[in-house]
Amino acid sequence: WASTLWHEMSHVFTLTGTGSRVPRWFTEGLAVHEETAVNREWGDRISPMVLKAIKDKKLLPVTELDRGFVHPTEAAQVIVSYFQGGRICDYINEKWGWDTLLAMLHDFGAGEETAAVIRKELKIEPEEFDKRFFAFVEADTKKQVDHFEQYSGGMKLISELAKTKAYDAIIKEGEKIQDWYPDYVEDNNLYEILAKAYLETNNKPAAMAELERYVKIGGRNPETIKKLAKMLVEAGRKKDAADVLARLNYIYPLDNEAHQLLGSFWLEQGNASGAMREFRAVVAHNPIDPAEAHYDLARALNSNHQPDQAKDELFTALEAAPGYRPAQRLLLELTADKK
């Protein structure tokens, strides 16, 4: 959610700032760049289609990159073009700086074409830019491109081994290939497969470590992230569990169970303002148990030295469930303190 929001807000600025005269490749490229610029865990990871395009040398010249969006020769070319636009902006930012990207945006807003903007701001011909950029991408992805076929073969073997629950063999093969394509975090990714295999062989620390790698590389399956949080709690690592659930807020903010858990962890850790935010999210999402939800929010408000607001929440909790003892006790305590 956060990555998508950041991407789309980037379009608002680039299209408004240029009167919509910016090339498609540049507005999409800046939006993709912005996703990972704010947080390395955001944004899409490099896909198999992109790796294949790099291997087959199918990236487009910068002056023709718009074609990949508006007149693609195949469905995969659109996905590859998003990647290429983002990496071009990454590359320009790294080699020429952010001010150069802004200058290019102004040039496009003034109606200049891609070739002229490249010459003006980068001081090189578009063909020379392509040569340097392609070399940059090939060097950056060399390990994944070179080993992709071996990785794919290893994953096919693991899929067959999974049918017979040969977990030791899965672990052996998985550990051999896991560094060849670390960016793959979509369905049937190796992180989750290895974590399951470790759990089945009673190696919970290894399973947790694998899922922590998954989260940090950009994995975004809400159920897997919650599973990791629960494992961390069981291991006595509640602070780490809270950090993992906080990441989930940026991926899928509509999970009441995750908000309730994170609010509880933060309240326990003395982060009253964070707990208030999480419990307010639970209240706003039509909770199954409204009395408990309002009671939790009251506890956080009270911890944040807001007793009057806490009492309001307790009254609401008791309206939903007049016999709810925890809310009754806290209300009596707050009323006694007031006297």
Automatic annotation (TrEMBL):
Pfam families xref list: Peptidase_MA_2, TPR_19
Sequence ranges assigned to domain Peptidase MA-like in this UniProt record: 4-120
Name of the protein described by the UniProt record: Tetratricopeptide repeat protein
Source organism of the structure: Candidatus Acidiferrum panamense
Lineage: Bacteria, Pseudomonadati, Acidobacteriota, Terriglobia, Candidatus Acidiferrales
